[in-house]
Specification:
Layout lengths: L9 E3 L2 E4 L2 H14 L4 H9 L3 H14 L6 H7 L3 E6 L4 E8 L2 E4 L8 E5 L1 H9 L4 H6 L3 E5 L1 H14 L5
Parallel strand pairs: 3-6
Antiparallel strand pairs: 1-2, 3-4, 4-5, 6-7
Length: about 160
């Protein structure tokens, strides 16, 4: 699966792409909708398989994050399962970086790191509106698991800067 071409993209330095307004609008709309999801729907979503949303996020990360990771960072982050829980949606995602890019972490894998947050907090982080330290301090972003790997992940994302502008 590939994302549609974006005629509003433009280069940012030598890394990746800046996505046009359609993706910003889509993200903002999704965040607004997430805040209105009732508890029974969240409970239902928690029971759904993690593969479809994990696959979709992996494809997005292949496009917006992977081109911005140098070979050394790819190697350091590879082979470790990262679980993301979007509390406002009841979604659980399982990701792992490998030689071909981002993919689904095996269902039996123990996560190296689990990240818990709301979609609104992660969207603000991805756009550079908030920084991870502030979100951690406010407990809007919780990371559990391997502390060293968690710091490597956080510092890598901090060094890259916003994924969307």
């Amino acid at each position: 699966m590939t994302l549609p071409p974006n005629r509003e993209c433009g280069p940012i330095g030598t890394h990746g792409l800046v996505f046009g307004s359609w993706l910003n609008d889509l993200g903002a709309t999704a965040v607004r909708m997430a805040g209105a999801v009732p508890e029974p729907v969240r409970n239902f979503m928690r029971a759904l398989p993690t593969q479809p949303p994990s696959f979709a996020l992996a494809r997005v990360l292949d496009r917006v994050l992977l081109p911005r990771l140098d070979a050394e960072m790819r190697l350091a982050l590879s082979g470790r399962a990262v679980h993301v829980e979007l509390q406002d949606l009841g979604l659980r995602l399982r990701l792992q970086l490998n030689v071909r890019g981002f993919g689904l972490a095996p269902s039996h894998s123990t996560p190296t790191v689990t990240i818990r947050s709301t979609s609104a907090a992660l969207w603000r982080l991805a756009r550079g509106v908030e920084d991870a330290d502030r979100l951690f301090f406010e407990r809007a972003l919780v990371m559990e698991g391997d502390t060293e790997f968690g710091l490597l992940l956080k510092n890598t994302l901090d060094a890259i800067g916003p994924l969307w502008k």
